[in-house]
């Protein structure tokens, strides 16, 4: 607070030094508090309005005392709060303003001196002084001239300004005047003109002087007004500071009271914390004592660890030394043990594999025995893989709709979302091979050499792989070729004891007509089916004795050339007929003379198809209708056999007449049902699988050997 008082005192002393105290005193006459400041600064008694009365003096003293009290209060407030920064800043600003006024006054005084001519004699002031001197000189010359002209008696020139008025002399008349000398009128006129010019210049200088004086007075008045405004602002700021200081003091008191209350409330917490600290100190002491015990134990352990480390180092060196000599021996021994164990393991695997195959064969033997005893038609389902066109189309109709949940099961979903699961004697998925298929067929084929009648036929929609399964291409033969190869192989191996005579025929049923595909005049003759002592047969059908598989393959190639095929929307080379390859075997035992007759029918049925989907027209349409008629008749025969009907409609088609032996007793019959894996053919797939399911339920009765004893025909 002392610093504030010093700043105010410095300001007022500055006003006195700048000789602007009088206007400040005039302003102080209207503000008692400012007057007190002025008195404090000058050490004088302020006179308000020039002559202060006793009452005014008393009022002034009271104001001064109030100011001192206020200063004390502010000082105590600032000392307690420490917030006098704002007051210091304001007073510094006021001090800067006073310095600015001092500089401005100096400029005004310099301007006034310049307007008045200054002490140096320069400017308009110096010129005016010169003119005044010239005027005085001219006045003196005029007076001398007038006096001289008066003496000479030649008229008088007008008296100069300030000259006494002319008239009769007041005193007694003197002697008569002497004659005056003649006056030079041109010279007088020249002097008058010079006088007029000087007078004009004098008037102009006076006007400039008055103008500068007025400007100086205006500047002085403006300066006085600014000083009064500054003092008024200072008074207002002091009042505001007083109010804000009181407010800050009150707030500080409130904060102190709140802090006291908060401190009082925390005394209990402090005591509790002190107790906790004491407890922790005790616990710490206990820990220190326990740590000392642990440290001693650790030192002992360190000693033991060092001893163990040295012992370990010795053991390590010993082990390394022994490893150099013992490890190769151990490795060699271990390798031999592993080799022996591996050999035993592989042998056990082989034994298990052999046992597994034996079990599978036994299971199949028993299953086939049951099937033979019951005489059921065995059904194998085979699904062809999707074609490249189907895989690349991206069409929903080409989506795969077939699954194989378990062994012997197939599941299909049609376009309507219907789903069904079928179970058959064997199921071959899209990845099955020709070898895998024939492996399951082989036991039936070999039974022909024992005198049994066997029939294997493929049924299904056009384009599902029936011909591929039965015939197969030259590079991947199907059931027909593989069966004949096995028959000739077995016959060759037993020829020392049994003599086999093998005869082959190949025919087709085309538009319900029989065509002999091995005849020289194919299609020129008509054939019928007749009943004989050994079953139904076709009179005059070409029968060819064969001694090797090569001969059979040549016959099959000839038959394939004569077979009826055509292009449809479903298949590029669709079979338009049912192909039947028959193999008749008469076996004679060389020792006993016993004769057995076996018959093998390998049948590739024409494809079932919807006329609208196949796109058949004209002759192809007639072919499709006849194919469907014969397949429908086959379905009726299967249904009648399944229901146990006394009448079996074999005579409804040429195909069923030829298959009568195979679909009756004393025959082993196997059906391949071939299906497509794509959604587009799902409806036909459902029909084929349902037909195969019904066929599997047909019981033909136990098959018997066709054996003729020696000496009987």
UniProtKB/TrEMBL annotation:
One of its GO terms (biological process) is microtubule-based movement. The keyword ATP-binding applies. Residues 143-154 have a biased composition (Basic and acidic residues). InterPro entries: Kinesin-like_fam, Kinesin_motor_CS, Kinesin_motor_dom, Kinesin_motor_dom_sf, P-loop_NTPase. Residues 140-192 are annotated as: Disordered. The keyword Transmembrane helix does not apply. Residues 157-180 have a biased composition (Pro residues). ATP binds at residues 460-467. It comes from the Eukaryota. Belongs to the TRAFAC class myosin-kinesin ATPase superfamily. Kinesin family. This is Kinesin-like protein. It comes from Triparma laevis f. inornata.
